[in-house]
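Supplementary Note 3. Input sequence used for the single-chain structure prediction.
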Amino acid sequence: MTFALDAVGREGPATEFTYSWRDTALYALGVGAKTSELDYLYEGRGPSVLPSFSVVPAFEPVMKAIEAIQGPMDQVVHGTQRVIMHRPFAPAATLLTTAVVEGLYDLKRMTQTTVKTRSVDKTTGELVCETAWGILFLGIGGVSTGTKPSEERPGAPSRDADFVFEERTLDEQALLYRLSGDFNPLHADPAFPLVSRFEGRPILHGLATYGFMVRAVVSQALGGKSDGIRAIQGRFSKPVWPGETLITEGWREGNRIFARTSVKERNEVVLSHCAIDTLEL
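The predicted structure, written as discrete structure tokens, is reproduced below.
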């Protein structure tokens, strides 16, 4: 396997993404929003937009960036996700998003990369959000473009959680989430070859679980308001199958909320090293 190393570090062309309240409400439903969260679902209240929506306009540019380095999509695993908010999303806007592959780093049995994106408002030119996608290419080693940057791995405090939020996902959760733009058959088609690695059942998008975690923090620690969120990060550790119950625990430490999400039925952590940075609480 040979990566196209000349594409590393080269920012791709801007991808235009226009959204309305329908798109942000559909995203909120895809990550489990309920009638008690009308601020995110009803146009009569704006609506507000969850900050994790940042991954939606970034998805196509990220895929193009992986394609530019000739990364094999059938060997990709999503390792980490970070979002940085520079201002809250408007209920509707057109964004221009660019992506760049930061580097390729040899982990012997796999290769790691980070794809970073920037989304600006097309009308005002303001920077709205940035994302960083930690991607692993399984089974490919011996490739490196330099020294791997150090990564923060925030850990939960060693005390009882300040809140515990339990919520069952729908059997159709992945089919609903994919309508926001991630159409990977791994999350829909039992006959898709990669599904055989996951007990023969399509799995929930990791970014859907990420959105569930963000909603839990917003509802339990931020009074249902997400405008004060400035950064979100987390590490994907285990798959989730639609219909399973997610339990998110959270700890408040100043302006940072630590979190982790587990599956109740298997007692396994599926999203770890989560931290949500906010304005002063």
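The mean pLDDT is 94. The chain has two domains: 5-138, 163-278.
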